[in-house]
Structure prediction request, 580 residues.
Amino acid sequence: MVTILLATSVYYSSNSSITLASTGVDGVKAKLQSYNYSHMYVRNANFDVRIDDNVTPETDSQWVLVPGLANSKEGYVSIQSANHPGYYLRHWDYDFRLEKNDGTAIFAEDATFKMVPGLADPSYTSFQSYNYPTRYIRHYNYLLRLDEIVTNLDREDATFRVIDGSSVDPDKPDDSVIVTNPVVRRRADPWVYRHTDGYYYMTASVPEYDRIELRRAKTLQGLSTATPKTIWRRHSSGIMGGHIWAPEIHFIDGKWYIYFSAGTSANYFDIRLYVLECPDSNPLTGSWVEKGQLKTNWESFTLDATTFEHNGTRYLVWAQKDPKIASNSNIYIAKMNGPLAITGSQVMIASPQYSWEKVGYAVNEGPAVLKKNGKIFITFSASATDSNYCMGLLTASDTANLLDPKSWYKSPNPVFQSNTSTGQYGPGHNSFTTSPDGKVDIMVYHARNYRDITGEPLYDPNRHTRAQIVNWNADGTPDFGIPVADGTNVIYIPPQTPTPIPTNSATPNDLIYGDINGDNSVNSTDLTILERYLLGRTVPTSPNWRQASDLNLDGNINSTDFTILKRYILGRIKALPWVN
Prediction:
């Protein structure tokens, strides 16, 4: 829970990814991001109110949250336009308008709302009407309405993220990596590639399985609000007219390529591999050309192609059905003759052999390659796409013959799987990227935040894109840990030059460790202030902030103190200071 400080009262937002600071009597500047259309924001358009992307001017999507006109008690706000001061969101006949405050009691009531935990996700916010408490602000056909909420879709339409309008640009590049999981909702099989131009490029399977979207941002978190560009749609008939799965964007020899899996209009599951090519420097604005099927040694169910280069040779790795083997799919590797074809024989390097690979379906799919520490690691996903979905690991020496099945060792247990304590289920089909400075490896994957699914899991749309750090064991193997819980995830803050604490500084008797802003409490506001200090964006102003920030009593303020404070706020450390 994040405290929002207004001029006369304290309000609360359930969104833990932001901290809104007081801006004085005029209230708090904010943007309202749609929950189920994350690239869209609430905006005024000629005094009508709707959700839109690419809002121009941007001030049309900026609002000032002030104490409720009809009720200024805790939790109530009115939503004033940033570029039309004195004009507020006001419902009239259950429609919304941007109207000037006429000073009447009915206007005040129509323009007052209670901020409550998000109806679709309690980490977000919903706005309950003051005078019609059974109704909430929601979007419908992109227009804002005041409706009673009945269905799951209603709840999603009535849920928003309140973003601090005075905060640092979330897409401003720096070497730190801090995300709010899920990063992108309803995008499965996520592939994220960081290019030399400083952008993260992302492709993924959309729930409709009917198109290929591409988005980019200077930060991982920026992908959450980046506008997706549809660069290709499935055919209306024939090949490439069925399910479209798992697109991956790669940059090879000066051109962009997207490898994807597609069925036919006659049989959506008659899946094969296909390739798109773009010669332009910006793949979002460039022209994409179909380059046809990427043929393997035989025709069968074929999917999830990825490619990598090693010692001057390019390889393709993918999943395919072998009619002679009692499994749904196995993992294969072959050399490539350029970016559009394989050459020579394909070699099977993994097939489902352990019980955890065969729950629901006997599956090895979704390979992703990570090269490090003299090894080549390939993660893959196994079992059905419900809570049993999990990840396995193949390992080979980087000096081995990668086309020899004996070069590959399969770990006998899953390396990443569902976790009830963090509420994450069916994690898998991942990709790997890095922090901007290349010093930290990051895994991007999908998972649901609930276990039980009605119907075929493949058609449950709520596999969300998430990101977390890849740690490394002493023997040079990756440690993926467990899937982290929803919410803010500090993946990486670059090491800072430690700030020494003067040795002659006496510790005040009333010092509260972790209370960096001096308000006599320790909460996420202090965490945000410490984060911004470590990133060089601000310096705390409370008298004893240096002593309050040295949480392990080592005489320095650095990322270790940040981690300790975060763990304390999450309840994993019971008292401060903490000295291990």
